[in-house]
Amino acid sequence: QVQLVESGGGLVQPGGSLRLSCAASGFTFVTFDYYAMSWYRQAPGKECELVATIGSAAGITKYADSVQGRFTISRDNAKNTVYLQMNSLKFEDTAVYYCSAGNGNYWGQGTQVTVSS
Fold first, then answer.
1. DSSP assigned state of 77
2. Of 23, 66, 69, 89, which is most buried by a Cβ count within 10 Å?
Protein backbone atom coordinates (compact mmCIF):
# COMPACT_ATOMS: atom_id res chain seq x y z
CA GLN A 1 0.00 0.00 0.00
CA VAL A 2 1.57 3.25 -1.15
CA GLN A 3 1.55 5.98 1.45
CA LEU A 4 2.34 9.66 1.01
CA VAL A 5 3.05 11.75 4.08
CA GLU A 6 3.36 15.53 3.80
CA SER A 7 5.16 17.72 6.29
CA GLY A 8 6.55 21.21 6.60
CA GLY A 9 3.40 23.28 6.67
CA GLY A 10 2.81 26.02 9.18
CA LEU A 11 2.19 29.68 9.79
CA VAL A 12 4.33 32.18 7.92
CA GLN A 13 4.22 35.91 7.29
CA PRO A 14 3.71 37.33 3.80
CA GLY A 15 6.99 37.31 1.92
CA GLY A 16 8.26 34.37 3.92
CA SER A 17 9.26 30.89 2.83
CA LEU A 18 8.37 27.31 3.63
CA ARG A 19 9.53 23.98 2.29
CA LEU A 20 7.05 21.16 2.11
CA SER A 21 8.13 17.55 1.96
CA CYS A 22 6.25 14.48 0.86
CA ALA A 23 7.72 11.13 1.84
CA ALA A 24 6.52 8.13 -0.11
CA SER A 25 6.61 4.50 0.92
CA GLY A 26 5.02 1.15 0.22
CA PHE A 27 5.98 0.70 -3.40
CA THR A 28 6.00 -2.89 -4.61
CA PHE A 29 5.85 -3.56 -8.36
CA VAL A 30 6.94 -0.10 -9.41
CA THR A 31 9.31 2.24 -7.68
CA PHE A 32 8.92 5.85 -6.64
CA ASP A 33 10.86 7.16 -9.62
CA TYR A 34 8.26 5.67 -11.99
CA TYR A 35 5.69 8.22 -10.90
CA ALA A 36 5.31 11.84 -11.80
CA MET A 37 4.64 13.70 -8.55
CA SER A 38 2.43 16.69 -8.01
CA TRP A 39 1.47 19.19 -5.37
CA TYR A 40 -2.13 20.39 -5.15
CA ARG A 41 -3.75 22.82 -2.81
CA GLN A 42 -7.25 23.58 -1.65
CA ALA A 43 -8.24 26.81 0.03
CA PRO A 44 -11.49 27.15 1.99
CA GLY A 45 -14.43 27.49 -0.36
CA LYS A 46 -12.29 26.97 -3.45
CA GLU A 47 -11.68 24.12 -5.83
CA CYS A 48 -8.57 22.01 -5.62
CA GLU A 49 -5.77 23.54 -7.68
CA LEU A 50 -2.79 21.84 -9.29
CA VAL A 51 0.24 23.79 -8.06
CA ALA A 52 3.24 21.97 -9.54
CA THR A 53 4.25 18.71 -11.19
CA ILE A 54 7.60 17.05 -11.66
CA GLY A 55 8.16 14.26 -14.14
CA SER A 56 9.37 10.83 -13.22
CA ALA A 57 12.82 10.57 -14.74
CA ALA A 58 13.76 13.72 -16.59
CA GLY A 59 12.51 15.94 -13.85
CA ILE A 60 10.52 18.14 -16.18
CA THR A 61 8.51 20.60 -14.11
CA LYS A 62 5.31 22.53 -14.62
CA TYR A 63 3.73 25.20 -12.46
CA ALA A 64 0.46 26.98 -12.08
CA ASP A 65 0.65 30.58 -13.25
CA SER A 66 -0.17 31.71 -9.73
CA VAL A 67 3.07 30.26 -8.32
CA GLN A 68 5.43 30.44 -11.30
CA GLY A 69 8.71 32.01 -10.26
CA ARG A 70 7.97 31.68 -6.54
CA PHE A 71 7.62 27.93 -5.99
CA THR A 72 10.05 25.17 -6.95
CA ILE A 73 9.22 21.48 -7.05
CA SER A 74 12.01 18.94 -6.78
CA ARG A 75 12.48 15.29 -5.96
CA ASP A 76 15.06 13.02 -4.41
CA ASN A 77 14.42 9.55 -5.79
CA ALA A 78 16.97 8.01 -3.44
CA LYS A 79 14.87 9.24 -0.51
CA ASN A 80 11.47 8.68 -2.15
CA THR A 81 10.68 12.28 -1.38
CA VAL A 82 9.29 15.23 -3.30
CA TYR A 83 9.64 18.81 -2.13
CA LEU A 84 7.92 22.10 -2.70
CA GLN A 85 10.00 25.16 -1.92
CA MET A 86 7.68 28.12 -1.51
CA ASN A 87 9.14 31.61 -1.50
CA SER A 88 7.59 35.08 -1.46
CA LEU A 89 4.45 33.65 0.06
CA LYS A 90 1.21 35.59 -0.27
CA PHE A 91 -2.04 35.59 1.67
CA GLU A 92 -3.68 33.77 -1.22
CA ASP A 93 -1.26 30.86 -0.86
CA THR A 94 -3.09 29.85 2.31
CA ALA A 95 -4.47 26.36 1.76
CA VAL A 96 -4.11 22.71 2.59
CA TYR A 97 -1.36 21.32 0.39
CA TYR A 98 -1.49 17.74 -0.83
CA CYS A 99 1.01 15.65 -2.71
CA SER A 100 -0.08 13.10 -5.26
CA ALA A 101 1.62 10.33 -7.21
CA GLY A 102 0.91 9.57 -10.83
CA ASN A 103 -2.42 10.71 -12.25
CA GLY A 104 -4.01 10.98 -8.85
CA ASN A 105 -3.26 7.35 -8.08
CA TYR A 106 -2.26 8.14 -4.52
CA TRP A 107 -2.75 11.09 -2.19
CA GLY A 108 -1.34 12.27 1.08
CA GLN A 109 -3.35 13.57 4.00
CA GLY A 110 -2.37 17.19 3.44
CA THR A 111 -0.47 19.84 5.36
CA GLN A 112 -1.83 23.26 6.25
CA VAL A 113 -0.05 26.38 5.05
CA THR A 114 -1.26 29.66 6.50
CA VAL A 115 0.12 32.98 5.34
CA SER A 116 -0.82 35.68 7.80
CA SER A 117 0.60 38.80 9.38
1. T
2. 89
